[in-house]
């Protein structure tokens, strides 16, 4: 497999534009550049269903198997890659524009849908499948067979928890804990 | 955490269901892992057999892998059975919870009904009382009507008389041509006077009747 090609195929042509990989000195152009990077990362995460990405731009999955897709910041095809300080800047832009949440020191949860829309989607699922007022485990929600057709299937547990907290704030849900860990939720 | 602020209460049953579901999830996870393992091993087996088509069947490693596959799939079956059991359990608990609500609803309805029925306890006395009152009312009505009817009749008579007097009197009196300047006719004058006298006599009678009425009235009240 030639993964770099798949990334370039997945993303808009701007991804193969060499100046994109160099930090632009002009402030105005740099803003534009950062915005473009944010969009590219979102697009990349969405097409690959990546919930989590590392600082280096690779996809982080829960399962043991390593992702075969290389970093988004390296474009083999045009022999360009972004420098670490610039990558740092991109991530801080992502955090600032609320398109990503820092999960741990070097991993980020990518929000190609806002937390609010994820939580409404979960609520919608509960309503349409008659799960209201019932205990649902987070595993059931993200990995269960009943959510296979839904976009949030396979969602990162941490992200799921954050979405459910949004529902809690709206007074629609209660978290159920087991051994100090959030295990389930009851949505009304 | 946010859940402290929300008003949704978590019952013991909810916790129990959670535990059940957690075990279910564990089983689910195990099933998936085992399926993956079996698939991997099958592929490995194929690979080994392809590599060494002649001695492959006798290779102890191949036999071992096949045994493992069988053992794993046996476990998988067991896991599936247990999964179904747990799912049944969860469904039963959830149904029982609904039944509980149903019973609670029934109970509440019964309470309300008994309360309402209690309010009807005095109904018999009330009805008796009402009957009595009605009877009394009828009595009064009778008394009133009998005595009032007489008086009323009298009044009618009097009114008629008055009307009669007014109508007939006004017809008789004003239409008489003036007698001034005419020679007196004795007979006709006397006749009209006697008519007048008769009227007066009737008026006196009426006054008498009124007096009688007044006398009887205090008795009625």
Automatic annotation (TrEMBL), chain A:
Keywords of this entry: Protein transport, Transport
SUPFAM superfamilies for the chain: Winged helix' DNA-binding domain
Pfam families: ESCRT-II
GO MF entry, a single one: structural molecule activity
InterPro entries: ESCRT-II_cplx_Vps25-sub, ESCRT-II_cplx_Vps25-sub_N, WH-like_DNA-bd_sf, WH_DNA-bd_sf
GO BP terms: protein transport to vacuole involved in ubiquitin-dependent protein catabolic process via the multivesicular body sorting pathway
Gene Ontology CC annotations of this record: ESCRT II complex
PANTHER family membership: VACUOLAR PROTEIN SORTING-ASSOCIATED PROTEIN VPS25, VACUOLAR PROTEIN-SORTING-ASSOCIATED PROTEIN 25
Record family assignment: Belongs to the VPS25 family.
Protein name: LAFE_0G16688g1_1
Species annotation: Lachancea fermentati (Zygosaccharomyces fermentati)
From TrEMBL, chain B:
Coiled coil: none
Subcellular location: Endosome membrane
GO term, biological process aspect, one: protein transport
Keyword list, A-Z: Endosome, Membrane, Protein transport, Transport
GO cellular component: ESCRT III complex; multivesicular body
InterPro entries attached to this UniProt entry: Snf7_fam
Biased composition (Basic and acidic residues): 202-221
Region of interest: Disordered: 169-221
Family in the record: Belongs to the SNF7 family.
Name by which UniProt lists this protein: LAFE_0D01904g1_1
């Amino acid at each position: 497999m030639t993964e770099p090609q798949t990334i370039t195929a997945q993303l808009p042509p701007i991804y193969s534009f060499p100046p994109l990989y160099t930090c632009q000195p002009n402030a105005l152009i740099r803003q534009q550049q950062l915005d473009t990077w944010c969009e590219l990362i979102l697009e990349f995460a969405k097409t690959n269903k990546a919930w989590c990405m590392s600082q280096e731009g690779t996809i982080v999955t829960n399962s043991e198997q390593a992702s075969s897709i290389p970093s988004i910041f390296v474009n083999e095809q045009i022999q360009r890659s972004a420098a670490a300080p610039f990558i740092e800047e991109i991530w801080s832009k992502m955090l600032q524009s609320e398109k990503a949440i820092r999960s741990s020191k070097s991993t980020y949860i990518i929000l190609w849908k806002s937390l609010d829309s994820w939580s409404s989607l979960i609520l919608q699922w509960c309503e349409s499948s008659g799960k209201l007022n019932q205990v649902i485990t987070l595993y059931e929600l993200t990995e269960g067979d009943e959510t296979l057709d839904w976009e949030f299937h396979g969602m990162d547990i941490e992200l799921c928890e954050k979405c459910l907290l949004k529902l809690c704030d709206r007074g629609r849900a209660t978290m159920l804990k087991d051994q100090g860990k959030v295990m389930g939720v009851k949505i009304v | 955490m946010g859940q402290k602020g929300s008003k949704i209460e978590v019952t013991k049953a909810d916790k129990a269901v959670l535990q059940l579901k957690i075990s279910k999830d564990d089983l689910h996870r195990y099933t998936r892992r085992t399926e993956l393992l079996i698939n991997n091993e099958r592929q490995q087996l194929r690979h080994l057999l392809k590599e060494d088509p002649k001695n492959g069947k006798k290779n102890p490693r191949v036999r071992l892998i096949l045994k493992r596959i069988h053992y794993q799939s046996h476990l998988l079956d067991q896991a599936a059975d247990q999964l179904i059991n747990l799912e049944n359990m969860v469904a039963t608990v959830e149904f029982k919870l609904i039944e509980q609500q149903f019973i609670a609803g029934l109970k509440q309805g019964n309470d309300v009904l008994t309360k309402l029925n209690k309010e009807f306890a005095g109904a018999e006395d009330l009805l008796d009382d009402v009957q009595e009152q009605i009877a009394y009312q009828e009595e009064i009505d009778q008394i009133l009507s009998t005595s009032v009817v007489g008086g009323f009749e009298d009044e009618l008579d009097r009114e008629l008389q008055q009307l009669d007097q007014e109508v007939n009197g006004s017809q008789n009196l004003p239409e008489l041509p003036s007698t001034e300047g005419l020679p007196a006719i004795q007979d006709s004058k006397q006749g009209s006077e006697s008519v007048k006298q008769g009227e007066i006599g009737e008026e006196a009678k009426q006054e008498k009747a009124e007096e009688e009425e007044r006398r009887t009235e205090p008795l009625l009240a």
